[in-house]
UniProtKB/TrEMBL annotation, chains A, B:
Its cofactor is FAD. It comes from Roseivivax lentus. The keyword Flavoprotein applies. Its EC number is 1.1.2.4. GO terms for molecular function: D-lactate dehydrogenase (cytochrome) activity; D-lactate dehydrogenase (NAD+) activity; FAD binding. Keywords: FAD, Flavoprotein, Oxidoreductase, Transit peptide. Gene3D superfamilies: 3.30.465.10, 3.30.70.2740, Vanillyl-alcohol Oxidase, Chain A, domain 4 (1.10.45.10). The keyword Transit peptide applies. Residues 41-218 form the FAD-binding PCMH-type domain. PROSITE patterns: FAD_PCMH. This is D-lactate dehydrogenase (cytochrome). GO terms for biological process: lactate catabolic process.
Length: 462, 462
C-alpha cells in the first residue's frame, strides 16, 4: 500500500483469507484498475479482487458491506466516462477470471455467460453453431461491462443495443444477496423489470455475475461497402432517407472529412479520399442483400455518392471494420501527443442533420480539431476533440465545446449519451436531461444501496 | 355513497371542487370501475375521477397524497388479473378522456399519445401515413393500460411487446410530481432505465400520462392463413422449427382441438375442422412473403398439416383475426354459463412442446374443460379453464389446475405471466418466480410510494 495504511486494511485482510493471491494490493495492478480509456483523473483502489464464481463475489460483497468498504466492478477497463475509477478507493472487483460461457441454447437463440466473457470470445465459441452475438462497441469489451453501461455500437441499427440483447441477469446486491432477474422466456409481464433496471446501472446498484444474451443466426450473405460524399449533409440525408425507407441495414456509419484525414495518416494503405464517407454493411439472403444494395445505391447516388468500394470476402470486411474501429486512434494521428475529449450525442433521426450541422458550427467557432464519427442510423454520433492534455486553456475550451454539443442534443430532443454511459464524465448533464426524474434515480439508488458502497459517485449523487 | 360516509369524503370534496362533474360517486360508475375481465372479486372505489390533462392528474395525486387516499389508474378495464380493482377503495383515475394523439413523427417512426388512446384509435389516426402501431392484445385496450401491464399479443413474435415499443413516458408520481423518462432518441445510456421500470408496474409506482410509442411501416404485402394438424405436438413442432429457421412470421397462433370446437359452436359460419390449428400471418415484400409462405408450408406439410386456407384481402384477414380474438368468448360457448380461469404460461421455445404436453396431461387429470390458445412463436400460451362460478369445488379444482400449469412453466425456465401481468391473480406465484428479487421489487415500491397509495395490494406486498 505504498507505505500507507489503507483505511480498509481489515477488509483486505479478510478478503486475502478468502481469495489468497487473487487479492492484490500491488502497485501496478492497482494502477491498472484506477483508470479507463476516458479523459478522467485516475484514482487507485485499495486492493483488487479476482473472483472466479458468483459465490466468491457474494462473499466479497458481504465482507465489504460489513466493513463499509466501497466496491467498483471492473471488466476490461475499456469504458470511456470514468465508470471503473474507484473515486473513494475500496475494492476493485475484476471479473476477468469469470470468463466462462455457461450454456449455449441453440434452439432458443440465447447463451448464458459469465460477465468477464468478451464479445470476441463469445463469437469465437459460437462459430460452429452458425449463431452470433451482435452487439459490437468496437473495443473487445467484457459482456458484463457492456451490460452495465448499456453499450451498443455499429450494428445496433439492425440488431439493437444491450437493452434489447440481454434477457436475464444474475446480480449480487450490495449486501451479498444473489438475485436472478428475468427468465429465458422471450417475454414476461411478471412485475418490475429488474433486468432493465440493472442494465446501464454501471455497478451502482449491484454486480452482474451472469447474463443471458440473445443470439442471431449468421446471415446467408454479408456485404460491406464504403462510399464518399461531396459533403456531410449529403451523407446524412442519405442515411435519413435509407432509414425512413425501412432499409434493414446492419451497419451505417458516418466518418467526416476530418476523421478521414486522420484515417489516411494513421493507415496510409487505406487509400480513400479525404471526403465524408459512409461505411455500410448489408445482411440477408443473396436476393435480399442485392435488393438492399440496389435501393441504397440509388438513394446515395441521388445525393452525389461516389467511390463505392465493396467487400464481400471475410478478410476484406474485417479490414474495413478494423479501420472503422480504430477511428479513435486515427483521430489522434491528426495531432501528435493529443488526447481526445469524446462526446456521445444521440437524437431522433429527423433532427440528425440539424444536430450535426450545429455541432460542426460549434467546432468551427471553438477553433478546435474534432473529427466526427457516428452510428448515424441510430441518430448517434461522436466527436473526439483533440487537445494537448498539458494546456489547461485548451482542455477548458474542449470541455466547453463538449458541453455545447451535448446541449445541442438535448435541445433537439435527444440524449447526451447514446451508448458510452454516464460514469463521472456525463454526470453534470443528468439534471438537464432528466429533470425531476433524476430524483427518482436517487431514490432507487438509496433503496438498493443505502450505505452508498456500490461504485459511489457515479450516475447520480446521493 | 350508498348512504355510507366514505372515509375519503374530504378528498372527494376537494376533487369535486377541482373536477366538477368529472368526479363521480354514482353507483353504476363506481361499479364499472370495481371490476375487470378477470375472475376476481370486485371492490368499489369511493369515487371515479375523469381527468383530461397531465396537470389534472398531478393535482389529483397531490390531493390524494395529502389526504392519504389510495388511487388506482383505469384504462378501459380489459385487464385480466384484477389490476384495476381498488382493493382498498379510494379514487379510480379513469384516463378515457385523455384520448388525444399528441404528435405523430413520421420521419422518426414514433407517436406521442395520451394514455386513454386505444390501439384501434391510434391505427385509425395513422392510416393516412402508411405507418402502424403493432402491439395487439386482442381487446381494444388503452395504450396506458397496455404500457402499465407490459402487454403484447398476436404479433409480438415479429414486432415485440410494449417493452420494445415504448420509447419514453410521462409519469405522475405518488406525490403529484411529473417526470419524463427517456427521450425520442432511439437509444440512450443515460442512467437508470426508468421507462422500463414503469412499463409493467401496473400503476403501483406512478400513473402514465403520456407515451412515446414506436411505429412501423405497413408492409407491402400481408398474407394470412390457417391450417389444421393431426395433433397438438405436430403443430407445436412446426412452430418450433419455423422459429428456429428464422422465418420472420408476423403472427403464429396455436388453437387446440378443444378451442376449435368452441369456435365452431360460437361461430358456425367458420366451417373449420375440430383439429388443432395454426393461424398465421406473413408480412413483407411480394417476393419476401412468397418465400416465407413456401418455407413455412414445407415445414408444416412435413408435420402433416392440411386444410390450408389463405386470406390476402383485408376483409378476409379481419374476419380470421376477429375469430382468433374472440377465442375467450368462443371457449365459453363450450359450457353455458361458465366463466374462464385464465393462465398465461411463457417458456423458452425449446421447452414449448414439453410445457404444452405436461399442461394437457394436467388438464386431463383434473377432468376439466380447458381450451388452449397461444402466441406460440413467443413460447406463450393460455388456458381458459371453464367452471361454474357458483360451484366452489369446481372453482377450487380450476385454481389448483391453474397453479399446476403455472408451476410447469416455472419448472421449465419460464414465467407464470407472459403478457397478462400480475395484478392480484398472479401475486401468489411471485416468490416462486423471482425468489429474493421480489424483495428488491418491494424495496423499489417503498422508495417510490412510501405511503403505499398507488394501486396498493398489487404485484408485491409491502
Amino acid at each position: 500500500m505504498d507505505g500507507q495504511i489503507s483505511p480498509h486494511s481489515d477488509v483486505i485482510e479478510a478478503l486475502r483469507a478468502e481469495l489468497g493471491d487473487r487479492l492484490s494490493t500491488g502497485a501496478s495492478i492497482r494502477d491498472l484498475h484506477g483508470r479507463d480509456e476516458a479523459y478522467s483523473t485516475p484514482h487507485l483502489p485499495d486492493a483488487v479482487a479476482f473472483p472466479e464464481t458468483t459465490e466468491e463475489v457474494s462473499r466479497i460483497m458481504a465482507l465489504c458491506h460489513a466493513h463499509r468498504c466501497p466496491v467498483v466492478p471492473f471488466g476490461i477497463g475499456s469504458s470511456l466516462e470514468g465508470h471503473v475509477i474507484p473515486l473513494q478507493g475500496g475494492i476493485s472487483i475484476d471479473t476477468s477470471r469469470m470468463n466462462r460461457v455457461l450454456a449455449v441454447h441453440e434452439a432458443d437463440l440465447d447463451a448464458v455467460v459469465q460477465p468477464g466473457v468478451t464479445r470476441k470470445q463469445l463469437n469465437e465459441e459460437l462459430r460452429a453453431t452458425g449463431l452470433m452475438f451482435t452487439v459490437d462497441p468496437g473495443a473487445n469489451a467484457s459482456l458484463g461491462g457492456m451490460a452495465a453501461t448499456r453499450a451498443s455500437g455499429t450494428n445496433a441499427v439492425r440488431y439493437g443495443t444491450m437493452r434489447e440483447n440481454v434477457l436475464a441477469l444474475e446480480v449480487v446486491l450490495a449486501d451479498g444477496r444473489v438475485i436472478r432477474t428475468g427468465t429465458r422466456a422471450r417475454k414476461s409481464a411478471a412485475g418490475y423489470d429488474l433486468t432493465h433496471l440493472f442494465l446501464g446501472s454501471e455497478g451502482t446498484l449491484g454486480i452482474i455475475t451472469a447474463l443471458t444474451v440473445r443470439l442471431f443466426g449468421q446471415p446467408e450473405r454479408i456485404s460491406a461497402a464504403t462510399c464518399a460524399f461531396p459533403d456531410v449533409p449529403a451523407a446524412v440525408d442519405t442515411v435519413i432517407l435509407a432509414i425512413q425507407s425501412g432499409l434493414p441495414m446492419a451497419r451505417i456509419e458516418l466518418l467526416d472529412e476530418v476523421q478521414m484525414r486522420g484515417m489516411a495518416l494513421y493507415n496510409p494503405d487505406l487509400d480513400m479520399p479525404e471526403a465524408p464517407h459512409l461505411f455500410l454493411e448489408f445482411h440477408g439472403t443473396e436476393a435480399g442483400v442485392a435488393e438492399q444494395v440496389a435501393q441504397f445505391r440509388e438513394i446515395a447516388e441521388e445525393h452525389g455518392a461516389s467511390e463505392f468500394r465493396w467487400a464481400t470476402k471475410t478478410e476484406d470486411r474485417t479490414r474495413l471494420w478494423e479501420a472503422r474501429h480504430n477511428a479513435y486512434y486515427a483521430a489522434q494521428a491528426l495531432r501528435q501527443g493529443a488526447k481526445g475529449v469524446v462526446t456521445d450525442s444521440c437524437v431522433p433521426i429527423s433532427a440528425l442533420a440539424e444536430a450535426i450541422a450545429r455541432t460542426k458550427s460549434a467546432i468551427a467557432e471553438a477553433g478546435l480539431i474534432a473529427p466526427l464519427v457516428g452510428h448515424v442510423g441510430d441518430g448517434n454520433f461522436h466527436l473526439s476533440i483533440l487537445v494537448d492534455p498539458e494546456a489547461a486553456d485548451e482542455v477548458a475550451a474542449a470541455k466547453a465545446l463538449a458541453s455545447r454539443v451535448s446541449h445541442i442534443a438535448l435541445e433537439l430532443g435527444g440524449t447526451v449519451t447514446g451508448e458510452h454511459g454516464v460514469g463521472t464524465g456525463k454526470m453534470g448533464y443528468m439534471r438537464d436531461e432528466h429533470g425531476d426524474a433524476l430524483d427518482v434515480m436517487a431514490d432507487i439508488k438509496r433503496a438498493l444501496d443505502p450505505l452508498n458502497l456500490m461504485n459511489p459517485g457515479k450516475i447520480v449523487e446521493v
